[in-house]
TrEMBL record:
Keyword Cell cycle among UniProt keywords: yes
Taxonomic superkingdom: Eukaryota
Record-linked InterPro entries: Cyclin, Cyclin-like_dom, Cyclin-like_sf, Cyclin_A/B-like, Cyclin_C-dom, Cyclin_N
The protein's name: Cyclin N-terminal domain-containing protein
């Protein structure tokens, strides 16, 4: 009875530390508790802080603990970071070489297939994209050419200004590349994407077509207007030059102002008293379109000595925009002059600032002359560049292949316009002197005082 109850008591009761003396008192069988309770006890001990233990402790603990730790490792082990170890597979040494060769062959073939597919897909996509872009660009160019031809024929039959003489040769598409080696590519130097050099040829081709659509009546003083005259128009524009200088407005604002005045006068009759109101209102609209900080309405009223009120200006603005249908992108002389000067500077080692000022001076002189409205803005811009180059250097032909290509005008086609500009340049008795006084200033290199000593001989 006593021997049977000892293990039971040992199992149910708390199991303490087993020493040699205690094991001896438990009986001949050792009275050791079963293995499973010891596993639980050892597991609890593993969670407790380690204590000092002599080398004579129970060996069952050392036997069971590794088994428990092995199970924990198999459960929580992260196998994703383990690499394949070929040494863990037991393969005869004879077959190891063959297996390694097969594995290498499969890997090489797989890499080749992946590489080919990766290289092939971008090439296929690139080829398809190129074909689509080519088809679209070809279709757009065909439409643009057909549209330009229709405009040429319309201008030819309408007999507007010099367009009837020029015919279909007025606008030559700059999109087509020239095979002439003497033509300099003026767009290749501009690497800045904001310059949009890739689209410059198309932009100016559209401007050449748009200037035919924006043509207005060249005799509106006789057919539309009843009170105002050519001299009144010239006095108004000469005064607007001083207004631009007073407020520091850009030359693009001035050219757009004059264009809006002519378009409105060719469609609506204006009285004498409202002519100045038309001028300041057109400048207000142009400054809103071109300037970063446009003058206020009150400033334009003040510059007229408060002749007109704010309500008058706003009412006139509403009428002008109604007539224009809010279309303000008018191709002016300044837009063509900027590109033609770039073509003229291509033959110089350094940009000639006097050439730019002189061409702008000659172009602005035409704004006060009602008789020059019959010429296209691009023709006046090309003639201004021609006469400016001739005035600065009379030993060299002012026209070359580059200018002929980008302006699409031959030297013989500029004869009438250049001679008209030269008459304005030599006429110092004109009462309209605002433009001359402006370009006599030192900041413009006093180009208004420059006069060609010889007549334009290459055109004669």
């Amino acid at each position: 009875m006593d021997k049977e109850n000892v293990p039971t008591a040992n199992i149910q009761g708390p199991i303490g530390r087993v020493t040699r003396a205690r094991a001896k008192t438990m009986g001949p069988l050792g009275g050791l508790p079963p293995l499973h309770p010891m596993v639980k006890q050892d597991h609890k001990r593993a969670l407790q802080p380690t204590t000092k233990r002599t080398l004579s402790d129970d060996k069952s603990v050392t036997l069971v603990a590794p088994i428990v730790q092995a199970k924990r490792r198999t459960v929580f082990r992260d196998i994703t970071n383990n690499h394949f170890d070929a040494s863990s597979i037991k393969v005869p040494s004879e077959n190891k070489v063959q297996i390694n060769k097969r594995v290498k062959r499969c890997a090489v073939k797989k890499n080749e297939r992946v590489t080919q597919s990766v290289r092939a897909e971008p090439e296929i996509q690139k080829t398809k994209a190129t074909e689509i872009i080519t088809k679209q660009s070809t279709h757009e160019l065909c439409e643009a050419n057909s549209k330009l031809n229709a405009d040429f024929n319309l201008a030819k039959h309408s007999g507007f200004g010099s367009s009837s003489q020029k015919g279909e040769s007025i606008i030559i598409s700059e999109v087509e590349a020239s095979n002439d080696e003497s033509i300099i590519d003026i767009d290749s130097k501009h690497k800045d994407p904001q310059m949009c050099s890739l689209y410059a040829a198309e932009v100016y081709a559209n401007l050449r077509a748009a200037e035919l659509k924006w043509t207005h009546s060249i005799d509106y003083m006789k057919t539309v207007q009843l009170e105002i005259t050519q001299e009144m128009r010239g006095i108004l524009i000469d005064w607007l030059v001083e207004v631009c200088e007073e407020y520091g407005l850009a030359s693009e604002t001035f050219y757009l102002t004059v264009a809006l005045i002519d378009i409105y006068l060719s469609k609506k009759c204006v009285g004498k008293r409202r002519l100045q109101l038309l001028g300041i209102t057109c400048m207000l609209i142009a400054s809103k379109y071109e300037e970063i900080c446009a003058p206020r309405v009150e400033e334009f009223c003040l510059i007229t000595d408060s002749t007109y009120t704010r309500a008058d200006v706003l009412e006139m603005e509403h009428q002008i925009l109604d007539v224009l249908s809010f279309q303000l992108s008018v191709p002016t002389i300044k837009k063509f002059l900027r590109r033609f000067l770039l073509a003229a500077h291509s033959s110089y080692k350094a940009p000639a600032i006097e050439l730019e000022f002189l061409a702008n001076y000659l172009a602005e002189l035409t704004q006060t002359e009602y008789s020059l409205l019959k010429f296209l803005p691009s023709l006046i811009a090309a003639s201004a560049v021609y006469l400016a180059k001739w005035t600065l250097d009379q030993d060299e032909d002012p026209w070359n292949a580059t200018l002929e290509h980008y302006t699409s005008y031959k030297a013989s086609e500029l004869k009438v316009t250049v001679l008209a500009l030269q008459d304005l340049q030599l006429n110092n008795t004109s009462p309209l002197h605002a433009i001359r006084q402006k370009y006599k200033q030192q900041k413009y290199k006093s180009v208004a005082t420059l006069i060609s000593q010889k007549p334009v001989t290459p055109l004669s």
